[in-house]
Design a protein that fits this description.
alpha/beta
Length: about 210
């Protein structure tokens, strides 16, 4: 008799807003521990309500260490059935933008150039001065996809989440067809691993929006 293992499901959430409406966005990573603003708290609650409406029960909850990810996870779980406690996962931490931390996109482009930014967005090649440790991040995602069991919720940043899409060759091929590999604030994606094969089931979705 052949045993079929239950699939591993990774629901990956980017934290909620950390900028006020109208505030110019900046490159914020590991060095800046911003709290959620009111709209970010609302995004987290909307995610929790949406998952509750789907009757999703998470077997594990992992969140990056900074306040914005921890608070997003806490607000979501407040609307879900009692379950696992939040596990702080250092490998989900935001990347370190080095000299570009806190800078506007125009300032970042002026320093590194559009080609370097494109290589980061498409191939995860860190621009000069950024600290990323791509091999360790990729290995952590691969390990979770192999050893994880059940439905896991991971709350992280955009820079860290995108490594999930490159952790497996099949996922990388699927990701190349996405309109964007970015996760917006308060958005989620889902990867399903079943019978040794990984697929992107959803990416960059926000509660209440039409499917992208």
């Amino acid at each position: 008799m052949t045993l079929t293992l239950a699939p591993t499901i990774l629901t990956i959430v980017r934290h909620g807003d950390t900028f006020f409406p109208g505030e110019p966005p900046r490159r914020i990573g590991a060095r800046t521990d911003l709290p959620l603003v009111a709209s970010g708290e609302a995004q987290a609650r909307a995610l929790g309500a949406a998952f509750a409406g789907e009757r999703i029960a998470f077997d594990r909850v992992l969140a990056a260490p900074l306040r914005r990810t921890q608070a997003t996870a806490e607000l979501m779980l407040g609307l879900l059935p009692a379950g696992s406690a939040i596990e702080t996962a250092a490998w989900l931490a935001e990347i370190d933008h080095g000299p570009d931390e806190g800078q506007s996109e125009d300032a970042v482009l002026a320093r590194i150039g559009p080609e370097a930014l494109a290589r980061w967005n498409e191939d995860l090649a860190a621009p000069p001065g950024w600290t990323v440790d791509a091999p360790a991040r990729l290995e952590a995602w691969r390990t979770l996809m192999v050893t994880g069991r059940g439905h896991l919720l991971l709350v992280t940043s955009n820079g860290a989440a995108r490594f999930a899409l490159h952790a497996d060759p099949a996922l990388a091929r699927q990701a190349s067809a996405l309109a964007s590999r970015r996760l917006r604030t308060g958005a989620w994606g889902r990867i399903v691993v079943a019978d040794g094969a990984a697929r992107i089931a959803a990416w960059d979705r926000r509660p209440g929006e039409a499917q992208r």
